[in-house]
Amino acid sequence: MQPLQLWGGPECTVNRSGDAYLDQTRLSGHQDRLGDLDLFAGLGITAIRYPVLWERVSPDNGPPQWHWYDERLGRLRQLGMRPIAGLVHHGSGPRHTDLLDDGFAPGLGRHAAMVAERYPWIEDWTPVNEPLTTARFSCLYGHWYPHARDEASFWLALVNQVDGTRAAMQAIRRVNSSARLIQTDDLGRTYATTRMAEQAGFDNLRRWAGWDLLFGRITPHHPLWERIARAGLGDRLRAIADDPCPPDVVGVNHYLTSDRFLDHRLQRYPQHTHGGNERMAYADTEAVRVLDPPPPGLAGALGEAWQRYGVPLAITEVHNGCTREEQLRWAAEAWDTALAFRASGGQIEAVTAWALLGSQGWNTLLTAPGIYETGVFDISGGAPRPTALASLWRALPTGGPRHPVASETGWWHRPERLLHRTLTRPSGVAPAVQTQDERVLLICGATGTLGQAFARACAARGIRHVVTARDTIDLERPDTIAGTLDRLRPWGVVNATGWVRVDDAEAEEAACMRVNATGAVALAQACADRGIACLGFSSDLVFDGAQARPYVESDAPRPLSAYGRSKAALEAGCAGLPGVLVARTAAFFSADDPHNFAWSLADTLSRGQRFVAAADHVVTPTFVPALVDTGLDLLIDGAEGIWHIAGSDAVSWAEFALRVARACDLNPALVIPVAGEALGWRAPRPRYAALGSERGATAARLDDQIHGFAQRVRGRFARAA
Predict the structure, then answer these.
(1) Is residue 18 left, alpha or beta, with left meaning phi > 0 and alpha meaning psi from -120 to 50?
(2) How does DSSP classify residue 718?
(3) Which candidate, 359, 358, 341, 357, places its Cα nearest to that of 349?
(4) Mean pLDDT estimate for the chain
(5) Phi, then psi, of 634 in degrees rounded to 5
(6) Taking burial as the number of CB atoms within 10 A of a residue's CB, which of 41, 145, 226, 700 is the most buried?
(7) Where are the beta strands (DSSP E) in 564-621?
(8) Whole-angstrom distance between the N-terminal and C-terminal Cα of the chain?
């Protein structure tokens, strides 16, 4: 038996909504970076799902545009990465056609013929990615073009894509008779209350329809025959069954959201889950959030597909849009699941590291601008940066070491996965047994706002950690550092301690320097000497405010205050230390600490009192939970050097106060803008201290962060009468 292969793929969707096309290859910047392919090859990928999409090659039904593909496919060949050519990926073709057009299938066949004739050496093909999923989103739910919302259109769209696949493979095999069809689709299972059993049963039958059609199984004896034939497609079903195009490999795409649960008791679930069929309303939510024990998930999907078709399988997308450690856990679990499936006698060729460059807008189902989800590489800073996933995927095929957090339990196995009233099932698959690595994350600063925030985040994210106070590690006594590190053997250290009294530091600069610089550098050096990742924190106050654009990581510090000088000394002392990350941040605020600006504002306004704030000092306020999550992700990634982690908006303190007041439903008229010099600050502060980033670590939009703050403090502060 051949070893389990590692495949990969950049998210390459080109889909249409209204008159607008969304092209993930352009959004990720891969369009302009040939060097990405060398980065992919460095992961050890043997095959790559790669787009030669109809919409891109012939966007206006004119002469095909080959230059980009000649260059990329040629480079893939040089690198020894076998392309799995995709021709339509959640799309509906160029503007002259669509999924309901009689010309869609023959048109795709002609496109496939051109591609095969130009690249006759390509062996593996996916003419249409996820045809069932695309038909649902385009012609049943109306999200994507042509925006139909009826069952007849859904079946027509599916049959057109299946006929397009058949036409494509016929054309390809006229050029290369050994060409293989690798047919992908999302495969989940629907669970339900007894009252919703009929709908769940239909969903669980429909999910096979695309593959069943290609295998020639939808004949008059198939339970879906009558339903599809009623859409006027009986003759086409007979033609497909008489001349099927069975996949050589069934590509299973399975996400944590793939398994669904339907419940007629709408009152148990939030509004956004409510839907229904023609006869009954019901909530539709992730099964893993309701069922206990949880559904068998990916292992169950592989088992069902193997039992149904008996042809080799591949896991063709592995991606989790989550925090870094959860991404690592999902990838490792997918690999281990594939190995276990093989050991049980199932045939599986490969596991695919998906969304190599991340993805854009899936939180809006590609219907509007949305968030960027980091992939194996993070492109938020422009150039691709390898995340911890890159190291993991390189290690999996050889059984190499995994990051300690990857060995811990994913949220989908932990009790907090259950967001709704639990439905207990009589049987289920127990969570995978995982080997726990004893190494922990060490958080220095047990009593501080930041230290406590890191501890809360680690608890929520399932990261084993130890929080220390000054009696364990005292940065004013560097002799306490080495012994603690050697005893606890952490994989990483977060230095959340420090002198924070900016004005007091003017009179006590030596004491501030001992904690913020001398001790912090000693801790970072000790970590570097032991190969331990280390995260420390600097400040926007290392700058003098003389420039008119946001400061980025490469800008030289010019501090005005004693506190700023201590942080600049920290940065200088940590420069070049391997594994040491220094995060510059600014004006952080928290719903769990009564000693920060936003809390003080809300408390003051709730008592009907005025609140003064500087109108001439500009900062980039940062919500502590966003700061902590971004910092943890970077620490797990092994990021080094200086990174800016701050909110995305540069605002004055007064504007920040107004936004917080409005979000908390407090009286903004009580916010009094003043000059900074009127506030009695002893330490000089830069008038403009906005932080930007050239490395891509901006925490989140300020309004989103303020909304998060307001949600957390709701009920604590009420508008004064």
Answers:
(1) left
(2) -
(3) 341
(4) 94
(5) -65, -40
(6) 145
(7) 580-585, 588-589, 611-614, 618-619
(8) 76
Cα 109 vs. chain centroid, distance in angstroms? 34
Give the separation between CA 71 and CA 57, rounded to whole angstroms. 14
For residue 185, give the amino acid letter. Answer: D
The DSSP 8-state label assigned to residue 405 in this structure reads G
Report the DSSP pairing between strands 281-286 and 274-276.
Answer: antiparallel
Query: The tokens of 163 are what?
Result: 């006929």
Domains of the chain (ranges, CATH numbers): 5-424 (3.20.20.80), 441-713 (3.40.50.720)
Within 8 A by CB and 6+ apart from 578, the residues are 528, 531, 640
Contact of 221 with 292, CB cutoff 8 Å: no
Report the distance separating Cα 407 and Cα 605, nearest Å. 47
At residue 595, φ and ψ (nearest 5 deg) are: -110, 25
- The residue type of 625 is P
Across 88-111, average pLDDT: 97
3-state DSSP call for residue 97? Answer: coil
Q: In DSSP terms, which residues pair with 281 in a beta bridge?
A: 276
Asked whether the whole model's pTM tops 0.90, one would answer yes
Closest CA to 475 of 453, 440, 444, 500: 444
Please give the DSSP secondary-structure letter assigned to residue 715: T
Cα-trace Rg, the chain: 28
252-256, 681-685, 712-716: range with lowest mean pLDDT: 712-716
Q: For 388-401, give one letter per residue: b (16+ CB within 10 A) or e.
A: bbbbbbbbbbeeee
Percent share of the chain, pLDDT over 90: 87
Residue pLDDT, tens place only, 516-547:
999 999 999 999 999 999 999 999 999 999 99
Q: Is 675 exposed, middle or buried (0-12, 13-18, 19+ CB in 10 A)?
A: exposed
C-alpha dist (Å) from residue 644 to 352, 443, 603, 622: 32, 20, 29, 11
Cα–Cα dist 56/416, whole Å: 43
Hey, what are 575's tokens?
């420069």
Question: Which pLDDT tens digit goes with each residue over 266-318?
Answer: 999 999 999 998 889 999 999 999 999 999 999 999 999 999 999 999 999 99
**CB burial of residue 353 (10 Å; 0-12, 13-18, 19+):** buried
Average of per-residue pLDDT across 641-660: 94
For residues 304 and 315, is the Cβ–Cβ distance under 8 A? Answer: no
Contact at 8 Å (CB) between 169 and 126? no
| Cα angle: 390, vertex 458, 365; to 5 degrees | 60
Which amino acid, one-letter code, is at 97? T
pLDDT in tens, 157-194: 999 999 999 999 999 999 999 999 999 999 999 999 99
Is 609 exposed, middle or buried (CB count within 10 Å of its CB: 0-12, 13-18, 19+)? Answer: exposed
d(CA 356, CA 44) in angstroms, rounded, equals 13
Report CA-CA distances (Å) from 255 to 186, 287, 327: 8, 12, 12
Query: 472-480 long-range CB contacts below 8 Å, 24 or more apart?
Result: 473/444, 473/523, 474/519, 475/444, 475/514, 475/515, 475/518, 475/519, 475/520, 475/522, 475/523, 476/514, 476/515, 476/519, 477/519, 478/518, 478/519, 478/522, 478/523
568: CB partners within 8 A, 6+ apart: 538, 542, 557, 559
Are the C-beta atoms of 640 and 578 separated by less than 8 Å?
Answer: yes
Q: Select from 631, 6, 683, 694 the least CA-distant residue to 318.
A: 6
